[in-house]
Each structure stands twice: as C-alpha cells, then as structure tokens.
Amino acid sequence: MNSAREIWEAALGELQLQVSKPNYDTWLRETTGVHCQGDVFVVGVPNIFIAEWLTSRLHSLIRRTLTNIMGRVVDVQFVVRPPSQVDAHPVATLQADGGTATKPRGSVSAPRLNPSYTFDTFITGESNRLAYAAALEVTEEPGYRYNPLFIYGDTGTGKTHLLHAIGHAAKDKGHRVLLASAEQFTNQFIIALKTNSIDDFHNKFRSADVLLVDDVQFLSGKGQTQECLLHIFNHLYDNNCQMVITCDRTPRAIASVTKKLKSRLEWGLITYIGAPDFETCLAILELKTKQLNISVPLEVLQFLAAHFQHNVRGLEGALNRVTTYAKLSGTEINMEVALQALADTIKQGTHRQVTLKPELIIHTVASHFGIAPETLVGKRRDRKASLARQVAMYLLRERNCFALAQIGEMLGNRDHTTVLHGCEKIASEITTNPHLKKAIDEIRKELAVEKHD
Ligand code: ADP
Ligand code: MG
C-alpha cells in the first residue's frame, strides 16, 4: 500500500497542472500527506490561513484528485502542522528577509530560492541560449553589466528557474539576495501598509545586493505598488545593486503600468526565452529522470518530448503523471502505460500524431527534399537520397516509436543496424548543423498540421 505521503505527492503533481503557479506556490507547495484513515485523507498545512483558504477554494478539486489517484471516494481534511513537525522538507535556502528579520505579520510564506533551480540543472538550447548567457554574465559582476536584466517569455519556459539560478550564484559569491514574485511583493506591501511598517518594508528591499522580481506583469493596474517598486529600483540602481525581472511579455506590452516603471524596466537588457525545441525537451526529460532516479525507455521520453513541447512545466507534469500512474498500478513504464496515463491530456488531434501513418512521414520527408517517395525506399545512395532517408528514419523513430527493424522494413528492407546508424547520425548532426535542424523542425511542423485519420 502506498503511504499517505506518496499519495499526496502524486496529488500535488496533478494539482500543479491545474492551479496557477502563484497559487500552487502559496497554498500547496508546503503541504504534506499525513495519514489516511477510513475514507478521510488528512493533509498537513503550515498554518490556519492556508487551511482555511484550501478548504474554501480547493476542497472539491483536491477531493476529486485524491479520489482519482486512490481509486475510491475519500474526503479531505486539513490539519495545521508547524514546519518543525514536517519531516524531510527541503530546507529554506534563503528568505525574502535574508533570514534575519521575522516574517511580516500575516504573511503566508517567505519566498525562497528553489534548491533545484540552479545553472547546473538548466538545459540550454537555441530557445534559451541568450537568456542563459545574459544570466551568467549578470552573476559575474552583479549591478555592473545589464541593470535590470529583464527576462520574458511564455509560461513554463524556464524564467523562474533562471531567476533562482542567478540568486544561487550571487548568494554563493556572498551577495545578499532578495527574491519576491510581484504577487508576493504586492501582498507584503499591503500588509506593510496595514501594519504601519512601510519603512521596514522599504528598508528590507533596499538592503538587497541583488533583487529578483518574478512575474512582474502581476503589477499591472496596481499603481501604488508600482510606485513603491519604482522607488526601490531607483535606490538599488543608484547603488549599483543588480535587479533581475521576469515577465510573460515585454515591458512595453504590460498594460496599466506607469511610463516611468516601463522605462526603468527597459533600461538594461531585455532577453527572450522561447519554447524549447524537441532536443531540449528530450534533454530536460533525461535530466529529470536522472534526478528522480527512475528509468524511462527512450521511446517514452521521445513521445513526451514530441507532444509536450512549448511548455516545460507541462512536460514535467506529463512525466510525473506517467511515473505516478506506473507506480500506483505497479507496472513498468512503457509506451502503453504512457498512453493510458495521458489519454485525457493529449488532445484528440495530437493524439493521432502518435499513430501517424509511416507513409505520411515518408511522403512529407521526400517532398521536403524534393525527391520521390519511392527514392526513399529504393536503392539510390547519392548524398541527397541518403540524407533524406536518414531523416525519415529519425522521424519515424521519434514520432511513431517503431522498432528499428520495422523502420528498416518500411524503407526498402534495410537492416536494423543501418537504421540505428541513420538515427544516431541525424541526432548528432542536428547539434552542429543548423540547416539540417531547421529542415527537420519544418518537417515536424508540417506533420503536426497534416490532416490524417
Ligand atoms: P516559467 O517561470 O517560465 O513559467 P519555470 O522556470 O517555472 O517556467 O519552469 C517550469 C519548470 O520547467 C521548472 O520545473 C523548471 O525547472 C523546468 N525547466 C524549464 N526550462 C528548463 C530548462 N531549460 N532546463 C531544465 N529545466 C527547465
Ligand atoms: Mg515563473
């Protein structure tokens, strides 16, 4: 039988996909599975505030999630367990107050650097190379290169990860790092106003060597908080303290933010993180499985990378789902389990890509290279035909997870070692040959929009 702790971890994995990140971080991240007695599942929470919020806002979602995971109807109860009673929780590496002052009254939890969001665990690819380089540069000499460093991109592309990585590196060099999401900054500002402690609030943020502000778009429409942040920025800037900001759009595109704050945000370097490509997703998955110490067949990882591109959080969520599903049902992870675990997540259209007809891949590749499909299955061995054939092998393996021997058969009864060689050659060549990589990305796109049954 799985322990309450394990079941709750699985539930957290699911809930992470269903609630916004600030909500998850504020209300769920620090909860634990305590025990399950009869049909009541007890969840430990750090304070009464969180217990009340979860009861009034997420009770039914949590109950449904637990019911799904446990395969029987359970109710859920929240009990307050002070952090000291919660075992083996990741230690807070840093608090917004630098670990010295006490938390402002009524605050929910102090923002911390996530111990696993470091430069070492950040996979680079074309989509994030520039942002990564800028982040590294900033940590060389905080306050003197780009100030502020402004990182923007869609949700789940690694902005927060990179922000925390900068925090860790700066902290290791002895700098005083303060981290706050714009939402937390706003909440703390409101509390400071209510409790007449605005000076303390200002002093706390002004004492930073490096100030990290996550998701600044949240300040849209919050004039007073913007004004306050602007003053803090000016002070830090004048004192050569580094600011790093993340956002889901460019400064200019944030609605209802004062001109002054926008111009301040644009003052340093603005860098973009795009959606990760297939290879980056695959590398991220390989890293995650290593960290989790689980073994997942390559074809499953390729399948996940192909279907959950564009959002690393979704990609991780999918991997979590598959591993949890396999664990709870006591089976090994394989393609069948992956498809079952993700059946309701994969959209109808995308789902069909799993069973994309091999002929379609062969045709699409051939037409991209300007040759006849018969050439791919035929004997021609000139450079163009060989390359196109190898690309077809690579894509057949990636998209449909066919066995090497099957692919060999489809492409003119070639030997499985020939197919393996072809796949490996393309996999290695796309890391050094941008033209080939572009061609393959284009074919993938064509296949994604292709109509098929
Ligand atoms: P964002 O802040 O842009 O919404 P996050 O930084 O929260 O995205 O990333 C979502 C998840 O994906 C995190 O668990 C993060 O560690 C992981 N992630 C994103 N990009 C990468 C990457 N390049 N390498 C490793 N993990 C990544
Ligand atoms: Mg983020």
Morphology call: flat
* Biggest sheet strand line-up: 5-6-7-4-8
| Residues in helices, as a percent range | 40-55%
How many angstroms separate the termini? 42 Å
> What count of helical segments does DSSP give?
20
Largest sheet: 5 strands, parallel
Helix-strand pattern, N to C? HHEEHEHEHEHHEHEHEHHHHHHHHHHH
Computed structural class: alpha/beta
> Which regions are unreliable across 5 or more consecutive residues at pLDDT < 50?
85-110, 348-353
Strand content: 5-15%
Q: Could you tell me the number of beta strands? A: 8
Bound molecules: adenosine-5'-diphosphate, magnesium ion
Cα Rg: 25 Å
What's the mean pLDDT score?
Answer: 85
Brief synopsis:
With 453 residues, this protein is of the alpha/beta class.
What do these coordinates show?
Mean pLDDT is 85; it is low at 85-110 and 348-353. This protein has helices spanning 4-18, 21-28, 48-70, 129-140, 159-172, 182-194, 198-206, 223-238, 259-265, 278-292, 298-307, 312-328, 335-342, 348-354, 358-369, 373-377, 383-400, 404-410, 416-429, 434-449, and strands spanning 32-37, 40-45, 75-80, 149-153, 177-181, 210-214, 242-247, 269-273. It has 20 helices and eight strands. Helix 6 (182-194) runs antiparallel to helix 7 and helix 15 (358-369) packs across helix 20 (434-449). 54% of the residues lie in helices and 10% in strands. Strand 6, helix 8 (223-238) and strand 7 form a beta-alpha-beta unit. The strands form two sheets. The protein has a five-stranded parallel sheet with strand order 5-6-7-4-8, sandwiched between helices. It has a three-stranded mixed sheet with strand order 1-2-3. It binds adenosine-5'-diphosphate and magnesium ion (MG).
